[in-house]
Amino acid sequence: MNMWDDLRIIRGMKHNLETRRQRLASGDRPLGWKVGFGAAVMQKQLGTTGPLIGFLTENARRPSGAHLSFAGWTKPIAEPEVAVHIGQDVAADADRNTAAAAIAGISPIFEIVDVYTPPQDPEAILRDNIYQRHVILDSTKPARPGSASDGLTCRIMRRGGEAARTGDSQANTGQWVDIVRHVADGLAAFGERLRAGEIIITGSVVPPLIIEPDENELAFALDPVGAVSVRFTH
Questions:
Q1: What's the mean pLDDT in 42-64?
Q2: Are the C-beta atoms of residues 204 and 83 closer than 8 Å to each other?
Q3: How high is the pLDDT of residue 52?
Q4: Nearest alpha-carbon partner for 110 in 224, 223, 233, 219
Q5: Three-state SS at 125
Q6: Residue 140 and residue 1: Cα distance in Å, rounded?
Q7: Which pLDDT score is estimated for 39?
Q8: Could you report the per-residue pLDDT of 111-122, keeping only the tens digit for each?
Q9: Helix/strand/coil (H/E/C) assignment for every residue in 70-115
């Protein structure tokens, strides 16, 4: 079955996109989109055939070095990700060359989520916008132009040292081009469009980082492109 024909996905996406429309009508501005639960083990658990799609708005964006409060949160998690910046509209059924050409550039980004309830039902996950709370991103302009991923090293620093490293920024997420095509198809199925000027955050480059109560800072370097950091209190 096509993922976009799944009644759970239909109900969740309609609710999610209506929430987005309400926020934009109230003065928020669009930033882009996110994907989540794309790993094969999670798709099997949820009974889905591809990543779920959520939205990002400017009110959720904070600059690198921002200080967040997790007071009242249940389970804060940080995901070091690569943001792909979309340089031209992408319609449904775009081929790989079209999707690759639409990537104007890339930037390092942290997504901060609060997994306050176990992820068991894709409709419920979508209704809460895949647990999205904040993104840490300095600029809506790409830190490096183009869609090339060769030569990148991802390094995560926590507790004063390097906690994780990978030389393959797409190994844990899937190919950026495929993610662009998936988001374009999913949005089109619900009357939306992937537009120039938006970003897509493509998933955590390493397993998501559960933020422990005694931690107060994380940093993510996407060498040689740039880096972002976030501080927090519990």
A1: 96
A2: no
A3: 98
A4: 219
A5: helix
A6: 36
A7: 86
A8: 999 999 999 999
A9: CCCCCCEEEEEEEEEEECCCECCCCCHHHHHHHEEEEEEEEEEEEC
